[in-house]
Specification:
Helix content is about 20%, strand content about 30%. The chain is built from eight helices and 18 strands. It binds FE2/S2 (inorganic) cluster and fe (ii) ion.
């Protein structure tokens, strides 16, 4: 049974924002890479994006380029993008479709989609060479609600254990079977943590998002996850039959068989360390974050709808996409302004208010993850 508490419940008196070095120092950036992005389960997108055998996507996590590819047997696997001959990157494009093999562009070592080396020109002339000794280096992969996750950890925390707090929590939203109607990539000149902190509070909503504030009061809602790697809760959609769209109305049939209370709620969750999940009655939006540098983050935003919605009269995914594209840009801009101010020598950690309890809880989790918790 899920228990919701007031939005201010997560608040602990006295907590301040993080010191400036957490947003700018190269040492912190290096520690984040090792202890968070090379260790945790990272969301790399949707399983449905790799619809056919041979479909692949290349993602960079923890500073490593990883190929995620659907095999001939239908299974999705992940491999380091590193040839076993002389190390060359195997795939250069961000996404595409391979034939039945992955062939290195340098000297044509050839691997099946499950990573087995099957071709290595002239290596039969090398004493003792055995192709079986040179499969691609595999990366652990798991699927949850139609999302794919990888981890570079040598001994990863079992996915089921890491995601136990979320097990079954969103079943009614049918997320695994939803279909994407749009994706927008953003390049944001701000540290990735500012994006999480921003997503975790709506104190800024009346000021930054006048359009959003009209549809859902910033003081509404309660949280059911307010400590640990997964945080969030819901806000109330004021208008009956409403949603967070340009028109203010639902733009598609419900994503699942939702109980009455969910028909006027939008749920926002942060899934440490790179996924933001927003569950509306009529669509699910998710963001994945890709830190590029201490002051740069690539963000992908995607909108998912009930598969039956496509082709139905009145289905207007753009109503949702345009609403959030505008809202996203307002957020990215203020995150960039925030990053710029934090870079000043005058910046000092400031006090969080009870309306920023989830942002503060996110910081605590971040400090635990990087090993700096007091
Ligand atoms: S480096 Fe890949 S075949 Fe030579
Ligand atoms: Fe915002």
């Amino acid at each position: 049974m899920t228990t919701f508490v007031k939005a201010t419940q997560a608040y602990q008196q006295g907590q301040r924002t993080l010191p400036g070095r957490y947003y700018n120092a190269p040492e912190i950036w290096a520690e984040e890479r090792e202890r968070i992005f090379a260790r945790r389960w990272i969301c790399v997108g949707r399983s449905a994006e790799l619809a056919q055998p041979g479909d692949y996507a290349v993602r960079t996590a923890g500073g490593e380029s990883v190929i995620v590819v659907r095999g001939q047997d239908g299974t999705v696997r992940a491999f380091y993008n590193v040839c076993r001959h002389r190390g060359t990157r195997l795939c250069e494009a961000e996404r595409g479709r391979l034939s039945e093999t992955i062939q290195c562009p340098y000297h044509a070592w050839t691997y099946t989609l499950d990573g087995t080396l099957i071709g290595a020109p002239h290596m039969n002339e090398v004493a003792g060479f055995d192709k079986r000794d040179y499969p691609l280096h595999q990366v652990a992969l798991a699927e949850w609600e139609g999302f794919l996750f990888i981890t570079l950890a040598e001994e990863p925390e079992p996915f089921a254990r890491a995601f136990a707090p979320l097990e079954g929590r969103f079943s009614r939203f049918n997320i695994a079977s939803l279909r994407s109607a749009g994706r927008i990539d953003y390049d944001v000149h701000a540290n990735w943590k500012l994006v999480f902190q921003n997503f975790s509070e709506c104190l800024h909503c009346p000021i930054i998002h006048p359009g959003l504030a009209k549809l859902t009061p910033y003081t509404s809602g309660e949280n059911d996850l307010f400590d640990g790697p997964y945080l969030g809760g819901y806000m109330v959609i004021t208008a009956p039959g409403g949603s967070l769209t340009m028109s203010g109305r639902a733009c598609a049939p419900a994503v699942g068989d939702l109980p009455a209370e969910d028909q006027h709620r939008v749920y926002f969750y942060t899934i440490f360390p790179n996924l933001l999940l927003s569950l509306h009655p009529d669509y699910v939006m998710f963001h994945t974050l890709w830190p590029q540098a201490p002051d740069r983050t690539r963000i992908t935003c995607e909108w998912l709808f009930h598969p039956d919605a496509f082709g139905q009269p009145g289905f207007d995914p753009d109503d949702a996409v345009r609403f959030w594209d505008e809202t996203n840009r307002q957020d990215w801009h203020i995150c960039e302004q925030s990053h710029a101010g934090i870079a000043s020598r005058a910046y000092q950690p400031g006090p969080y208010s009870p309306r920023e309890g989830i942002s503060a809880a996110w910081d605590r989790e971040f400090l635990r993850a990087i090993g700096h918790a007091r």
